[in-house]
């Protein structure tokens, strides 16, 4: 195949050498002259095509488009040119596809007609390939139908299944008309049903038979049936003698079994799941498959879960245990992986058994079968890296008595006194992790009466471990945990034999201990999930000392274990929260997030990065170039990447999955984040944005109805939290994660800015100025109306508020208000009274600006007092600098909102000036009162921008002062007596320790001992301060006008 | 802890536990999808209870192009292991071995003569792993890798082309005992 890949096509061999040479040399004028001569002499339309193809290479628009006219003529008149002409035409108009010319309206139908007329030609295959690569499903399906007919009952089965696959794809594609959709659906199902019946009813199928033979063909059948058939049909076939899930398993095919379990679970068909799992597992025991073929954890979980839901669940669970026991009897023959799966299956079944079966006598005994099973599992696997993740879900399900027994009786006795030291510390690290996990479990607390002996209790619970009044988590227990983990940590570092043993272990136990200490300190600092209600600066919402201690401790650990990606990612997030973007970037870079994994992992660093540190975008290689290149490279074609390979290989389920994946990638929130973050950063420094966001090739199919999807991968975070609370990554983000709502609002607000900031080309001089002005006005009003409606719709969706930070909500609300205000201002005739709505809108905008300004800590309008427990009188600059440094996204919102207001006011004023210049009467200009409203808005925005500029200057000055490193260290390790007792300022977040087991400064001391004291923290403090300085330096160059 | 199943494209969003490990290469999207498109049964994953991919193997089935049929380096119909990786937390459980065995089953099902793979000559751990699984060195590909994994002063490193015969090669025609003595250039390797 030559032309569709757009190498210059070869001319027919019959063409003379002179013309061949001119064509291959690209001497287009010579080609035109020679081809015209040959056409006249030989009366062969092929030479006309060569001539037109050569003309298309010239600069003139008419010559370029002649080939399009020729194609259009062929399509409309239902003519079928020869394949060489099609190849020439396709090459000639290659630059028009996806822009002016739809393949499905031009070359696609020509190829389909040619293939229908020549189905036996090998070139027909190339026609279906060409149509698929241009994602013209209509033409591709027509060609596939022709090929199927031509090659029916031959050994090449692909054509039949291409036909079916493409018929199915068409039935679910927007390329199909609603009228045809049902027909194609039925056609695909009928084709496959016939094939399935043939398979089930034939003793043996030959490759020439039109039944289902390969696993891919069977997989396609079930996928189509699941989509277009009924549940009953699906279930009935699932039990059939040849195409049933068990029959397929016997042939070594597991795909259907896995997909069927998912489908049945979605339908809640527990009886069927139970039977299917039972039969499949028995098959392994009876030699129908290799013994552990389906012995996955998923199978056991679904088996146990289904057994607990069927009518006779006691008997069903008994059956699960019986089959499991048979597997355990042969587990010596299994690999370590399956042995572990069996151990986990045992845990799973024990936890799914009804309480009556586990404890028939209702004893209040902590040593329950569940605890025993956890103990047995850990006895085998506690040294494994994944031991904590394996059991944490089960431990979090235990009742308090069981927990106490596990933690105080079972685990401490797991190793003998004389056991290996290294094994002891590994077990101790696991115990610390479990202890932290339990601090996130509500069953470790009991409700506290609102008043005790007449005294009001301010803590709603009592901790069942330490009996202290508390909230979740219990601060007293967390403090004790920090101290215990610190002791264990020092025990390792002070023992050379232990340190030397670390490389032989699955994981450095110091890492686990550091994570426990770090997480405990973060919780003690008051860090809460960064959801939509986190309005305050981080510095104001947490106890800075404890937060910084956590960061310092984890950073110190990273120096010991630099290869640990979990810890590195955790620190990247913490430094972003702390406003140290450049340092976070230095930690992020070695993770080498590149190519395919960028879509899932990039949000962990890049989301909101332009609002935190625009300066990062200044420098050599554009910061987000690899991400942009990833999307450009993989989404530039309309067809999914490598789709022809899947057709060619007959991988039908791969085709369906690849199409779904492609669709998700085109609707990726990360993609939208990439475009928006770059545009925001470019605007910060007055750069030129290449094209309007709506015109960007990557947003081609995105509109209000598109659901943008976030595939952010939080898998690599070290999550010690239980399912009773939010996962750790929710505590660490700058705000709510990527979402359709936020991405759509960002897309719309960028479109609004594109409208305001559009500048016509300098040489644009319309001949009919009045007409052009009217068209422009009409376009502007239509766009404003659309944007206003869309912004308002997204903002008013019930889920939206929870997907945005407060400053983002304000930012997007202002865009919604501005688009509505401009619509009124520009559409109200001067002679009419100005609708009062405009005044209401501008008042809301001003109020929003004030709200934003008041939330930024160093703003003159903000009088909030920072929370700190240190009594060292801080200098005024640091009092405001710390909170400001951890609230830079709010500063960004102030700037961006104020600039949007100013651009809007300027847009209205410019529209007015243009009208005045065009129509001297002044009657068509903008309403006088509207102009006044916009001027007032402009003044308010100017004031906000002035303040923002002032804030940056003050921050710069503050950070320019000497002694910052000492100041940071003073926050982290205050001098004796600098820590307020509990009940003092911010005392509820301190480790004051009044009345609790761990006293003043003991936690700090524990941290100090791990990090090597104040001296050990100096280098770290220097890096933090330097990163703040770099960030503020970047902000100093941001344009505020 | 683990489920073994076929790869799905959505797994690409769950690769971090494997691919953030510096010893695992991250390829272009088209590379993964090419394998999924052409040889889906040879692209298998192990996933943990949260859906994270903790191991995977990518393989292909092919022979050398017909044009090389009479070359001494011609490869008959065989399976090739392109990549196999296991996340640090899932090591020492035999996942790599299970994935490799699954690929061998697929190779036998597709009537392959042998399964082959390339490995750095300095990667003793992997070489031992494969030898324990029945693979042997068939030839040494000189300067196959553009950089040396352990010695920064060297600009290249040799590869062992290791093979394991499948059922079709009952007479062990496609393996040899003294593979370390047979050196070839990268240009001879198809």
From TrEMBL, chain A:
List the record's Gene Ontology CC terms alphabetically: NatB complex
Q: Which Pfam families match?
A: NatB_MDM20
Which stretches of sequence are listed as region Disordered?
855-878
Under the heading InterPro entries, the entry gives: NAA25_NatB_aux_su (IPR019183)
> Could you say which protein family the record assigns here?
Belongs to the MDM20/NAA25 family.
Its recorded name reads N-acetyltransferase B complex non catalytic subunit-domain-containing protein
Organism equals Chaetomium fimeti
UniProtKB/TrEMBL annotation, chain B:
Organism's domain of life? Eukaryota
Q: Entry's Gene3D superfamilies? A: 3.40.630.30
Q: Which UniProt keywords apply?
A: Acyltransferase, Transferase
Q: Which residues lie in Basic and acidic residues bias regions?
A: 175-190
Q: Name one GO molecular function term.
A: protein-N-terminal amino-acid acetyltransferase activity
Q: Where does the chain cross the membrane? A: none
Its taxonomic path starts at: Eukaryota, Fungi, Dikarya, Ascomycota, Pezizomycotina
Asked whether the keyword Acyltransferase is assigned, the reply is yes
List, alphabetically, the InterPro entries matched: Acyl_CoA_acyltransferase (IPR016181), GNAT_dom (IPR000182), NatB_acetyltransferase_subunit (IPR051646)
Stretches for region Disordered:
150-190
Q: What is this protein called?
A: Acyl-CoA N-acyltransferase
Q: Which organism is it from?
A: Chaetomium fimeti
Q: Which residues form the N-acetyltransferase domain?
A: 2-167
Query: Which cellular component appears as one GO term in the record?
Result: NatB complex
* A Pfam family reported for this protein in Swiss-Prot or TrEMBL: Acetyltransf_1
């Amino acid at each position: 195949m030559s032309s569709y890949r757009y190498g210059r096509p070869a001319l027919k061999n019959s063409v003379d050498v002179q013309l061949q040479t001119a064509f291959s040399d690209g001497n287009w004028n010579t080609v035109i002259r020679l081809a015209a001569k040959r056409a006249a002499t030989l009366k062969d339309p092929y030479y006309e095509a060569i001539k037109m193809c050569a003309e298309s290479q010239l600069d003139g628009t008419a010559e370029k488009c002649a080939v399009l006219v020729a194609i259009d003529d062929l399509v409309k008149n239902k003519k079928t040119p020869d394949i060489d002409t099609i190849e020439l035409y396709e090459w000639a108009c290659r630059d028009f596809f996806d822009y002016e010319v739809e393949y499905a309206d031009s070359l696609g139908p020509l190829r389909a007609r040619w293939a229908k007329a020549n189905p036996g030609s090998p070139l027909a295959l190339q026609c279906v390939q060409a149509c698929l690569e241009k994602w013209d499903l209509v033409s591709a399906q027509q060609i596939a139908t022709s090929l199927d007919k031509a090659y029916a009952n031959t050994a090449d089965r692909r054509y039949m299944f291409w036909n079916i696959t493409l018929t199915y794809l068409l039935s679910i594609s927007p390329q199909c008309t609603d009228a045809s959709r049902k027909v194609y659906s039925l056609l695909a199902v009928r084709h496959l049903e016939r094939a399935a019946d043939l398979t089930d009813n034939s003793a043996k199928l030959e490759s020439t038979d039109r039944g289902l033979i390969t696993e891919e063909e069977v997989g396609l059948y079930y996928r189509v049936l699941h989509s277009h058939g009924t549940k009953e049909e699906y279930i009935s076939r699932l039990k059939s003698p040849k195409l049933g899930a068990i029959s397929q398993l016997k042939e070594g095919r597991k795909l259907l079994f896995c997909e069927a379990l998912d489908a049945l679970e979605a339908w809640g068909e527990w009886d069927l799941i139970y039977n299917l799992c039972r039969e499949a597992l028995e098959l392994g025991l009876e030699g129908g498959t290799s013994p552990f073929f389906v012995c996955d954890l998923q199978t056991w979980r679904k088996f146990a879960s289904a057994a607990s839901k069927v009518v006779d669940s006691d008997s069903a669970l008994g059956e699960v245990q019986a089959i499991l026991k048979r597997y355990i009897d042969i587990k010596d023959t299994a690999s370590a992986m399956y042995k572990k799966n069996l151990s986990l299956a045992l845990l799973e079944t024990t936890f799914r058994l009804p309480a009556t079966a586990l404890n028939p006598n209702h004893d209040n005994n902590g040593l329950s079968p569940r605890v025993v099973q956890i103990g047995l599992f850990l006895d085998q696997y506690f040294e494994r890296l994944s031991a904590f993740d394996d059991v944490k879900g089960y431990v979090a399900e235990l009742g308090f008595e069981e927990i106490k027994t596990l933690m105080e009786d079972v685990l401490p006795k797991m190793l003998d006194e004389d056991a290996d030291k290294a094994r002891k510390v590994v077990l101790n690290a696991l115990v610390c992790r479990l202890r932290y996990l339990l601090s996130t479990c509500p069953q470790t607390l009991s409700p506290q009466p609102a008043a005790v002996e007449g005294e009001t209790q301010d803590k709603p619970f009592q901790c069942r471990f330490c009996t202290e009044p508390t909230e979740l988590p219990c601060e007293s227990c967390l403090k004790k945990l920090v101290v215990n983990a610190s002791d264990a940590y020092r025990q390792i570092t002070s023992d050379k034999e232990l340190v030397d043993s670390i490389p032989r272990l699955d994981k450095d136990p110091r890492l686990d201990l550091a994570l426990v200490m770090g997480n405990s300190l973060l919780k003690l600092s008051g860090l809460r999930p960064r959801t939509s209600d986190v309005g305050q600066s981080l510095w104001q919402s947490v106890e800075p000392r404890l937060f910084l201690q956590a960061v310092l401790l984890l950073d110190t650990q990273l120096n010991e274990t630099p290869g640990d990606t979990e810890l590195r990612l955790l620190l990247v997030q913490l430094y972003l929260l702390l406003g140290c973007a450049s340092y976070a970037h230095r930690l992020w870079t070695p993770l080498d997030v590149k190519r395919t994994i960028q879509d899932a992992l990039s949000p962990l660093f890049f989301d909101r990065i332009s609002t935190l540190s625009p300066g990062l975008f200044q420098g050599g290689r554009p910061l987000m170039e690899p991400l942009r290149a990833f999307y450009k490279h993989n989404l530039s074609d309309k067809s999914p990447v490598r789709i022809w390979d899947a057709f060619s290989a007959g991988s039908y389920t791969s085709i369906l999955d690849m199409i779904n994946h492609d669709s998700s990638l085109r609707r990726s929130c990360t993609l939208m984040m990439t475009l928006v973050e770059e545009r925001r950063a470019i605007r910060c420094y007055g750069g030129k944005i290449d094209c309007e966001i709506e015109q960007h090739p990557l947003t081609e199919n995105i509109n209000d109805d598109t659901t943008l999807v976030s595939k952010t991968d939080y898998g690599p975070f070290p999550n010690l939290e239980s399912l009773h609370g939010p996962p750790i990554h929710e505590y660490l983000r700058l705000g709510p994660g990527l979402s359709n709502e936020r991405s759509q609002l960002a897309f719309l607000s960028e479109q609004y800015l594109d409208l305001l900031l559009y500048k016509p080309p300098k040489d644009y001089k319309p001949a009919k100025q009045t007409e052009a002005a009217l068209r422009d006005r009409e376009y502007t009003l239509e766009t404003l109306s659309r944007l206003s409606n869309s912004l308002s719709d997204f903002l008013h969706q019930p889920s939206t508020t929870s997907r945005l930070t407060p400053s983002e909500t304000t930012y997007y609300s202002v865009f919604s208000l501005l688009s509505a205000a401009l619509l009124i201002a520009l559409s109200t005739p001067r002679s009419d009274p100005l609708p009062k709505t405009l005044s209401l809108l501008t008042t809301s905008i001003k109020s929003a600006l004030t709200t934003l300004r008041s939330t930024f800590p160093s703003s003159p309008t903000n009088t909030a007092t920072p929370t700190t427990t240190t009594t060292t009188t801080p200098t005024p600059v640091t009092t405001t600098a710390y909170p400001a440094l951890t609230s830079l996204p709010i500063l960004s919102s102030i700037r961006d909102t104020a600039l949007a207001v100013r651009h809007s006011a300027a847009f209205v004023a410019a529209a007015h000036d243009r009208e005045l210049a065009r129509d001297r009467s002044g009657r068509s200009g903008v309403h006088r009162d509207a102009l006044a409203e916009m001027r007032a808005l402009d003044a308010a925005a100017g004031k906000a921008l002035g303040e923002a500029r002032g804030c940056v200057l003050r921050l710069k000055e503050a950070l320019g002062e000497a002694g910052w490193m000492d100041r940071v260290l003073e926050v982290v390790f205050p001098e004796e007596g600098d820590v307020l007792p509990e009940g003092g300022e911010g005392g509820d977040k301190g480790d004051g320790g009044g009345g609790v087991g761990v006293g003043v400064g003991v936690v700090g001391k524990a941290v100090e001992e791990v990090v090597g004291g104040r001296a050990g923290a100096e280098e770290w403090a220097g890096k933090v301060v330097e990163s703040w300085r770099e960030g503020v330096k970047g902000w100093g160059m941001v344009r505020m006008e | 802890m683990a489920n073994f199943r076929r790869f799905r494209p959505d797994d690409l969003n769950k690769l971090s536990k494997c691919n953030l490990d510096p010893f695992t290469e991250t390829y272009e999207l088209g590379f993964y999808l090419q394998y999924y498109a052409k040889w889906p049964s040879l692209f298998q994953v192990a996933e943990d209870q949260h859906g994270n991919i903790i191991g995977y193997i990518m393989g292909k089935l092919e022979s050398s192009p017909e044009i090389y049929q009479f070359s001494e380096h011609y490869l008959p119909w065989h399976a090739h292991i392109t990549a196999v990786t296991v996340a640090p937390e899932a090591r020492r459980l035999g996942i790599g071995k299970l994935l490799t065995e699954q690929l061998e089953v697929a190779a036998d099902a597709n009537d392959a003569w042998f399964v082959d793979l390339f490995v750095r000559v300095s990667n003793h751990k992997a070489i031992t792993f494969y030898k324990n699984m029945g693979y042997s060195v068939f030839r040494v590909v000189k300067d196959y890798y553009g950089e040396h994994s352990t010695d920064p002063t060297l600009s290249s490193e040799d590869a062992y082309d290791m093979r394991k015969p499948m059922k079709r090669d009952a007479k062990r025609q496609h393996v040899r005992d003294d593979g370390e003595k047979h050196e070839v250039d990268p240009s001879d390797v198809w």
